[in-house]
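Complex 369.
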Amino acid sequence: AAIEKGGYDHFMLKEIHEQPTTIFDCLRGRLLPETGMIKMGGIEANIEALINAPRIIIVACGTSWHAGLVAEYLIEETCRIPVEVEYASEFRYRNPIIQKGDVIIAISQSGETADTLVALENAKEQGAFIFGIVNSVGSSIARLSHAGAYTHSGPEIGVASTKAFTGQLAVITMMALKMAKAKGSISDEKYMNLLHELQAIPEKVAAILKNTTGIEAIADKYKDATDFLFLGRGYNFPVALEGALKLKEISYIHAEGYPAAEMKHGPIALVDENLPVVFVTTRDRFYEKIVSNVQEIKARKGKVICIASEGDTVIPEMADDTIFVPDADELVGPLLSVVPLQLLSYYVGLKKGYDVDKPRNLAKSVTVE
Ligand code: G6P
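Predicted structure with 6-O-phosphono-alpha-D-glucopyranose bound:
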């Protein structure tokens, strides 16, 4: 088992550190900035169905559902197609409306999640076109899909999903860009720029992973907190949700993810000097707005931990603790900002003495409803 973990103490840590490689493998042969191309057979073969869809419905559970939320932002912005993101367990039972031409994107690491599988079977019977974004080759969801793209993240052993999530984000980004290009809903300049931004991601993730002692120290400082709040806006809102989920799964600390502005409508009541609030405050179109959200928490004596862009001098002045990530276009930002949150939950769980690879009550793949 020690050999399988490649020198790491846990699969989770190994898989977090594999991400520069797994994201690279996901992009390899597909993302070709030199020629301005994205090669994805499953998309090319069905491009008309995809770009002419009146609506795209994303169906997933857990961490994969968070990837679906990022996909909603990406596809709506670049392709101008309405997107809905559904919990598979709700979608399957509420007699959802599926209309002619609707496309369903299924996102699943294992390809075996029961709720997702049955939701797709139902939608397929009603005539929907199913596009699968799956990690596990040949899995049930991969076989049920009309077309798809594998994430190529390799086997994920840690129960808490890490590298599969960034693989999903990489596929979704390529998919959105490829569709947008075919549809003509993105400028050539923006498209080319994003191809390069995406290509630079593996190296930037490697840079984050190079030195994690700061994150470890933050984990140590806050590990006895009973609650955590995770806040983000825009593309980083799903990242906040994922950060909260990771912490719950691994450290058993109650955590909630929220849109940073929506926090005023409830969670702000929880803020006192004992509540750590993790903000994703990387430089994007919402930067000024989230800076004021940070001020609102500080005014109520909350402890603020920020994920900020390298070179930011404003945030470290306000926050109790800051973790820096390399600058990137906001459309690919989640691929970077989620990594420190994965590490934070890993180190909190570790320092609390829990089995991070096998958290209590959780299953790697939920094959019963
Ligand atoms: C379980 C796992 C999660 C995962 C979710 C969905 O809850 O513990 O890590 O995100 O199932 O799984 P899937 O394989 O469909 O992505």
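The longest strand covers residues 303-309.
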